[in-house]
Amino acid sequence: MTAIASFARARAVATGRAQPIATVRHVHLSPRPLVVVPLALAGEANAPLAALAGTHPDAADLLVVPQPRNRDLRLAFVAELAGVVLPYIHSYCYDVEHVPRPARQRAERSEARGQAAPAGNWPGRDRFTGAPQVLVPNPGGVRFLALLGRSTRFRRTTGRYPVKPDVPVLGRWLTFLADRAEAPGSATLLAMTDALALHWATGQSALEDQNLASVMGWIDSGPGAARLAEDPSVWPPAGPTTDPAFDTEVLAPAIRAYDRAEPGSPAQDRARAAVADALRGQLEPTWRLMWNALDRLRKLPAGASVADRWAADRTAFTAFREHVVGGGPPQGRRDGAVASARRLNRLERQLADYEAARAFDDPLVLAAHRVTGAAFAGTVVAVDRERRRDNANGTPVTRPLVTVHTPDPVHLAAGTEVVAVSRRNQMGTVLATTPAAGGIEVTLELRGGMGRARVPPPGSVPAVGDRLCYTSVLAADVPTPPLPDADRTPWTHGGPPAPYQPTDDDDGEDRE
């Protein structure tokens, strides 16, 4: 937790209302998201109980498993869920755009880093103009969908315990969404409590912030509403777990009545309807909260980098859809050693990009870095525009010096690279930090963003009196370690992973 977030929490306690910790919205919100509120049976691994799903607040599909311990009823529930989710996903598989390779941007980025511009022809690619966005109440909902995908993507449509063809397809898509949810800044599968916590600080613990009703209470009304949210008779849990009192007093008797009724009889139909009515009462309050929270987030303007992250989601969605349509195999049960290392490296790069982008988008996020000394704001007090020095090859290059006076604490060692929020295409290197009256003077050597002229053109170098904010929180290039091909995985890491071969064990329940 940052110092700014800690202060905001203390202020929330003092004022009785949640405090904003962002000035812009850092997540993409689809104009037509699919909201899913799942419930699972307590004490059973991956036993779906019910779900409320839909793309409009006034049109929700209620899916119910009247006896969650029954395998056939569970798979029928998954087939019903596929009937809701898959058409929604496929609705984004029609409009395509051509994306040219941003060669000019690559050249400018390389120039700013003092590197040679990349050579060669960089062809573009096609991707869908949209992508699905599934919203769930909390991280528990994300884990529920991930486990549901894991337990269904290997199901067979023939042989022992056959399932409908849509069931394994849904499992693969749920696994894709769960994998994307691990990527920092991704919005294809989003937990609403995480999205709210990214923009508001409440006066309660991080654990209590996983209660959607409690968080919305702090945002809308204050601690009184948050305390009311702790009463399950007023605000039932947002799932996937249910309230123990409801399980004992309402759900268990309704399921027993279903079990005792003769299959296919009117009594069993009535019992099923009773289970559905009870579960609808548990789901509808959370359903309303989800749409209220969505409206709250939509009032914030989107950050400048949100569109780029959503473009990455659309690219991943396009690639996976091509994989599925092309007959590719389902995702493996576990990543091999090499695949895990690559995945970890990719997530580290994405996290560095995400943290830097949020700091550039939002002054409040950048303020947290200023408090720790990783960024500073100040006034330019001296400029040497025409300074030149020899580079590593002995060639004279223009490297202006800029001195910035700042009252902020600065904890940047000499050689640290920084960039100004208002001058993203120009890098700076800290040469020295010296105490000065009322603060610190930071001397920077600039490169990039000045063209190739011997004397930088007007406006390409900061002028005395300019107010600038520099940050060292950059989208750094996380190095990729040399990794072998998967088929050359050393024995110390388990050896080459065996390719997936369908077996009869795939028909069993996956409880991991």
Question: Can you walk me through this structure?
Answer:
By secondary structure, this protein is of the alpha+beta class. The protein folds into 2 domains: 3-99 and 125-333, no CATH class; 361-471, Elongation Factor Tu (Ef-tu), domain 3. The protein is 39% helix and 18% strand. The chain has 13 helices and 17 strands. It has helices at residues 3-15, 71-90, 103-112, 139-152, 166-181, 192-197, 212-220, 223-228, 244-260, 266-298, 306-325, 337-361, 363-372; strands at 19-20, 34-40, 48-56, 59-64, 96-99, 125-128, 134-136, 189-191, 200-201, 375-384, 388-390, 396-398, 401-406, 417-420, 423-436, 439-447, 467-471. The protein has a 6-stranded antiparallel barrel. α4 packs across α5, α9 packs antiparallel against α10 (266-298) and α12 (337-361) packs across α13. The chain is globular, with a radius of gyration of 27 Å.
Task: Bin the strand percentage.
Answer: 15-25%
Number of separate domains: 2
Quote the average pLDDT.
87
Helix content: 25-40%
**End-to-end distance:** 31 Å
In short:
By secondary structure, the chain is an alpha+beta fold. It is 39% helix and 18% strand. The longest helix is centred in the middle third of the chain and has 33 residues, at 266-298.
Brief descriptors of the model:
13 helices; alpha+beta; Elongation Factor Tu (Ef-tu), domain 3; 512 residues; single chain
Describe the secondary structure blueprint for this structure:
Blueprint: H1 3-15, E1 19-20, E2 34-40, E3 48-56, E4 59-64, H2 71-90, E5 96-99, H3 103-112, E6 125-128, E7 134-136, H4 139-152, H5 166-181, E8 189-191, H6 192-197, E9 200-201, H7 212-220, H8 223-228, H9 244-260, H10 266-298, H11 306-325, H12 337-361, H13 363-372, E10 375-384, E11 388-390, E12 396-398, E13 401-406, E14 417-420, E15 423-436, E16 439-447, E17 467-471
Parallel strand pairs: 2-7, 7-8
Antiparallel strand pairs: 1-9, 2-3, 3-4, 5-6, 10-13, 10-17, 11-12, 13-16, 14-15, 14-17, 15-16
